[in-house]
Design a protein that fits this description.
Cytochrome p450, three-stranded antiparallel β-sheet, five-stranded mixed β-sheet, 12 strands, globular, alpha+beta
Amino acid sequence: MAALPSHCPALPGPLPRTGPGSATRTGPPAENRPSSPSLLASGTERDPYPLYRVLRERHPLVYDEPFGAWLVSRYADVRAALADPRLVAVPPGRTLAHLEGPTHSAHRAVVSPAFRGAALTALTAGVARTAYVLARRLADRQEADLVAEFCEWLPTAAAVAALGLPYEETARVHAWCRTGLDHLGGHHPDLDTFLRPYIARRRAHPGTDLLSALCTARADGRPLSDEAVVGLSGSLLGAGGEATARGLASFLANLLDHPGQLGIVRVRPALAAGAWAESLRRDPPLHIVLRRAVEPVGAIPVGATVACLLGSAGRDPARFADPDRYDAFRTDPGQLAYGSGRHFCPGALFARLTAEHGLRALLTVLPDLRWVPGFRPTPEGLISRSPRSLPVCLR
């Protein structure tokens, strides 16, 4: 990966590793480790941006001993790392992010069409309909918390609808997204049992929903296995949970913090896509994406974990002018929040539709939407990061 810097000393042969923060690590010997800040340092979770600045300027590639991973912090390097075939998704997992080579290409060719044509039309309609239902439930209120009453529910309900699952299952999936199910392959123990009967029905009597598309698709001339369908469906359900909910919360916070920009987007809805992309740049829902080296990559040995710092990359002044400022009309906000290269997440379209139609529904149903007096959003989290509450006045 030519774009990654080589500021760390050459390493000896690979060492065994059990995970970030573990006692056994794949890093340089103690005498060769540069003194550098750690992601686990006090105060970083509250405000990581001073650390990101130090890493970009002084330690663009460095082994973080307490965290147990090599840190990559500059935009160009993070982009290169996400696209490098020598760095793969950290197991376990069964999503597209965990597939490589011909298997990845075949499965991606199956999944991508599900976000086009009639399936995309149905998905868009389902997202829009769900957004208006949730917004109208708030219409008679004076105040509400948009995180608890809108952001956390819209993506999950939309994902359930896209797969053609019963609406009443939304609460169950919503709970799973808080206990292990996520878009990067985190698995809930009940997911297989839940999905297998629906998969069997779609194989026997396919419809027009996304689950039917997965059940009837063929990769290398053969149908996807039930395990693959469960993994891909779980990825969408997980993405429809925490990741998209966090991204939506930051999106609404950024626009409510800039009422002038919000007013322009209100009268020109086509600008919402750019406003969403800018929010992903400045405040991505995932600040850290982990990769594992299956081949040496410069100073990084086989078996090492690499932490791609999306939160740092999006605010790299070498790539973005005035990077800490939210500008809904920035012409080139970059594209890292949903991956890069072969592992660019196909769920990015789903997330964008959720953000755009969610915003449109809120502005249509609640035209006086604004912060509760004196409130300012406070993002929280180290790996995943977003405001935990958004109290607003509705009238």
